[in-house]
Structure formats: structure tokens, C-alpha cells
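Course assignment 3, question 2. Fill in each field.
Student: A.L.
Task: Predict the tertiary structure for the chain below.
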Amino acid sequence: MRKCVKIIIDYYINKKIRLRQAKIIQQDQSIYSYSRVLNEDLHKILN
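Answer field:
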């Protein structure tokens, strides 16, 4: 289940997420949302 929430992220964390997103988009040549990258990273950390 997905839920829309508002969070505040530090500049350097945001930059790392954006760079990771850009790398995935370049490799796959497809759409890859910021939320998807963030969710996948959180999933790895929390599981």
C-alpha cells in the first residue's frame, strides 16, 4: 500500500538520490521516478 507523505531531506542525501536516479535512467533508457529510487533504498535499509 502506498501513502503520500511529506518529508524534509538534507541536501547531500537528495543529491545522492538524484545521481542514483540519473544513473539508472541512463542505463535503462526508461522512466525511473525519484519516489521509486527512494522507496527501493529505504526497503534495502529496513529489511
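Instructor remarks: Residues 11-28 form the longest helix (18 residues). Helices lie at 11-28, 34-46.
Grade: pending
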